[in-house]
Amino acid sequence: MQESRLFKILYHLLDKGQATAPELAEKFEVSPRTIYRDIDALSSAGIPVYAEAGRNGGIHLMNDFVLDKAVLSEEEKQEILTALQSINSTKTSSRQTLQKLSAVFNINSENWLEVDFSRWGNSGTDNEKFELLKSAVIDQKCVKITYANSYGTIRERIIQPLKMSYKSMSWYLKAYCMEKQDYRIFKLTRILDLEVLTEGFSKSSFPEPYPDSNQAPAQAYNTIVLRFPKNMSYRIYDEFDNTQVSQKENGDLIVSVEMPEDEWLIGYLLSFGTQVDIIAPAHLRDIVAEQAKKIYEKYKASADQSDI
Question: Parallel, antiparallel, or unpaired for β 154-167 and 18-19?
């Protein structure tokens, strides 16, 4: 426990520059006396850490200090290598960094994990898109995207990219949309084209829809209850966790899941065709029915014209 706390204190000092003993004591839920003992332990291990008294004093590291490999435990070293290994398919430099750190840590990083962001048959465009958006998030640069929404409308938008998110087997970009003047979530596969602009922005926090958040959620998360016939089990267990699924005596599958009610959800439910019954909320049935009616009328009109 102490070894883990020592590393966390060291990381905190590297990140923040300095801290007081009471601040560290509150952060790590120990007494200031314990923090001073930890500082002595770090100093005894050769870490150039010192305490300075006075109004502007505190606990500091020497300015030219570089984190030494000896500070990391074997488990922490392996976690770092695993994290790098999980993204090394997108960039050659990541693979080189992985090799260098493996040598520095004296650990043979077995190639047990492979992550490829591209879809089947894709020659790497998805990986390139991921790298461009990642750089835009880190560098805080606006991005102009061509995006296809759930209704198939394709249009250009200028966004402030805030965070990359992996959810339910897909990558998403959490961003602030300049057109809508609101926060939005964009699915990466629907970003058809993008251009990283020179215009920068001040980064803000994407409002997450959780009870402990101090900000209003960008989208409302409601409990959606769906019923599927048992012949849809192959897709249901692909797309939902088994804790969200229950089975009726007749074999029907009931899915209860919290999801945002947005354009994506409507398109997603329509993708099941007649193989889904929306149990709750009731108003969602009306929205999906209305959209299905519009689709029917569109194609019926097209068919009527082709008969002329």
Answer: unpaired
β-sheet bridge partners, residue 247: 253
* Helix ranges, the chain (H): 2-16, 21-28, 32-44, 74-87, 92-105, 125-139, 233-239, 263-270, 282-307
Cis peptide before 281 (omega within 30 of 0): yes
> What does the pLDDT profile of the chain (308 residues) look like in tens digits?
455 677 778 778 877 778 888 888 888 888 888 888 888 888 877 778 877 776 767 888 776 665 554 556 667 666 666 665 555 555 544 555 555 555 555 555 555 555 666 666 665 677 788 889 988 998 899 999 999 876 668 899 999 999 988 876 678 899 999 998 999 989 888 899 999 999 999 988 888 654 433 333 445 578 999 999 999 998 898 888 888 999 999 999 999 998 888 777 888 899 899 999 999 999 999 999 999 998 888 888 776 666 65
| Paired tokens of 198 | 């020179």
Rounded Cα distance, 177 and 145, in Å? 10
DSSP string over 5-28: HHHHHHHHHHHHSEE-HHHHHHHH
**How far, CA to CA in Å, does 123 sit from each of 90, 128, 290?**
12, 10, 39
| Structural domains in the chain, sorted by start | 2-70 (1.10.10.10), 72-105 (no CATH), 136-200 (2.30.30.530), 221-303 (3.30.70)
In the three-class reduction of DSSP (H, G, I as helix; E, B as strand; rest coil), residue 90 is classed as coil
Is the torsion defined by CA of 126, 263, 156, 216 positive or negative? negative
CB distance 178 to 116 below 8 Å:
no
